[in-house]
Amino acid sequence: MNLIKKSAIAPADPGQKAPAHEIVYQRLKAQILFGDMAPGQAVTIQGLTESLGAGMTPVREAIRRLISDGALTFQGNRRVKVPEMTVADVEQVTFVRTSIEAELARRATKNMDADTIQSLENIDSRLDAAISVGDVEGYLKHNYDFHAAIYAQANAPIMVDLAERLWLRFGPSLRVVCGRFGTQNLPDLHKEMMDGLHRKDAEAVAMAMAQDVEQGMNLVAAVLAEQDAAR
Question: What would the CATH number be for the domain defined by 20-81?
Answer without folding.
Answer: 1.10.10.10
